[in-house]
Structures are given as C-alpha cells and as structure tokens.
Amino acid sequence: MHELSVTQNILNIALDHAARAHARRITALYLVVGQLSTIVDDSVQFYWDIVAEGTPAAGSTLHFRRVPAELECRECGARFGLGRDTFECPTCGSARVQVTAGEEFYVEAIEVEGETEGESGAPGAEAEAEADETVSSPASPPGDDDPSGK
Predict the structure, then answer these.
(1) What is the CATH number of the domain that holds 41?
(2) How many structural domains are present in the chain?
(3) 3-class DSSP state for residue 58?
(4) For the whole prediction, is pTM greater than 0.90?
(5) Which of 7, 14, 64, 134 is the Cys-Cys partner for 47 at CB 3.0 to 4.6 Å?
(6) CA dist 148 to 33, 68, 86, 135, 141, Å?
C-alpha cells in the first residue's frame, strides 16, 4: 500500500521538473528500481494512472529499469549477486556482507513536450530532463545495509 505515497512523490518530482522546463506535458518517466527495494511495478503503474489524472502527466508512460542486487563481503571483499537462498559470501562463507546495489529507487529521466503558453522557443519542442531524484519509500529503513541482520 505504500506505493500510493511513493507514486505521489514521483508525480511531485515530475511536475516540479516539468514546471522548471516550462513543459506543457510530461510524456514519459524513467524509474530505476533495485531488486531489493520494496517497490512493486504494477502497483506504481496502477496508482500512477490515478494520481496523474488531470495533471500534465496524465497519459504519460512509466518505464521501469530493474537493478540486480549486488553484495560485497566485509571479510574478503568478494562481490557477488543475489542468486542463491543465502546472503553468505560464496568465496569465504562469511555472513558479514553489505549491499552495494539493488536498493535504488529514483526517477532517472523525465520526457516532456512543448512549452507552456507565453514562453519563448519552438512550440512542440521536446526535451528530456535528467532528474536523478531519490523517491522516499516509507518501507525502507535508513541505514539498514546488513541483510544478514548482524
């Protein structure tokens, strides 16, 4: 259920960037979602269609790019993916690991169309805004980077 507030935050980021770009309409958003994040793509898409209605983002497309989880052993320094049932290091067997990738969730880019009336520039011009803004997720406790719980 936290996807509703997360999706509202995404909309706020998109509208802010579109306003700064004097855009008439938002056509697409590119989201980066880590494998270990608690974000469910389908839920965000469902809520997006609701919260974006009546805004310059109505009808825009969400694109999701998944980032696989990567861990690093704090004992031997080995880096490995999360392809098994355990978080233990495949090299030395240590459970002292740190997540180095896969917890991301942010807006990577926003595509906009045209300029608002009264602004200079060619009508119908398209632009892509680099956003790189992290979206807060109330389900992700800060500083919880040891998945082994140790």
Answers:
(1) 3.30.2320.50
(2) 1
(3) coil
(4) no
(5) 7
(6) 21, 18, 9, 25, 15
Cα 143 to the center of its chain, rounded Å? 18
Tokens representing residue 72 in the block = 């690093």
Burial status of residue 129 (CB atoms within 10 A of its CB: 0-12, 13-18, 19 or more) = buried
Is 117 part of a structural domain of the chain?
yes
115: which residues sit within 8 A by CB, 6+ positions away?
Answer: 22, 23, 24, 121, 123, 125
Tokens of 66: 């998944």
Give residue 111's domain range. Answer: 3-67+102-134
